[in-house]
């Protein structure tokens, strides 16, 4: 049976190594994953699935994988996935808002064209019927 | 001295230091750029750098959302400074996505400006239409007032020296004798008429008696003796 050599220096080294490994495992990135969840929900409320389906799908996949990594205690991987999911969701939301604003601008332009034609017709009718 | 080497074992626990590709890492260069560069190539970082550079030179972005690239710059700086290749790729991805979001944000601002412009145009057109409608209504009102004035003028009584045009009496409808008696005779007249009619009926036989004397012309049907007798 193997026994640790009775050397004080070796004991100190092994103990330090253990502490460092334990420190590197870190804490579970609960806040980061929650933030990603929140960003995904906000993107969904902004109709991101309609306007930016690819980015939205990326975000959803990464959130799911981040949660899976959390359960497997791969915290560093979970943190990265959650941060990337949050970034993807923010892009999806920004794209959705942009597309929505563009759609509204197009509708306004169409309305203006219709109004302008109607005003011209009215003006013409008014001139024709003037005494 | 060789016995003490195991004291260095904890140093292997630092991330990346035990990996083979750490051999390519180097200290930051002093090139004078905004970002520090290391002695290895990371494609993700390079792509993020290119995207950031392009976005920072974009006029729309610098005008619409001038401070939005700050987050991307921060991620990119961290990506360039980290020793961990995976972490560098991860941070480069975040920087790249941040740049994408800034592009979308600039597009949104652009669309919002256009929308505001269109809404202003719409309001101007609506005001123009309202003004035209008001003008039309005023014309219509003036026309109605003129017509009403003409009608009032026509309905005024004529002046005193005015000779009225001869007015034709309405042609009465034909009335029966009974209606005439009823409408136009007074009760005592009707009574008198009734007595006369009774008298005539009573002596209806006398009406058939020819007149045979004392006349000239048409009634002169009798003999001379009869005429002398009647006189």
Which features would summarize this protein structure in a list?
heterodimer, A: 131 residues, B: 7 helices, rod-shaped
Structure, briefly:
The complex is a heterodimer of chains A (131) and B (231). Chain A has 131 residues and is mainly α.
Structural write-up:
The complex is a heterodimer of chains A (131) and B (231). Chain A is mainly α. Chain A contains five helices and no strands. Chain A has helices at residues 8-25, 30-45, 48-51, 53-71, 75-129. Chain B has seven helices and no strands. In chain B, helix 1 runs antiparallel to helix 3. The termini of chain B are far apart.
Write the layout of secondary structure elements.
The complex is a heterodimer of chains A (131) and B (231).
Chain A: H1 8-25, H2 30-45, H3 48-51, H4 53-71, H5 75-129
Helix pairs in contact in A: 2-4, 2-5, 4-5
Chain B: H1 43-56, H2 59-64, H3 70-81, H4 85-154, H5 177-184, H6 187-202, H7 224-230
Helix pairs in contact in B: 1-3, 1-4, 3-4
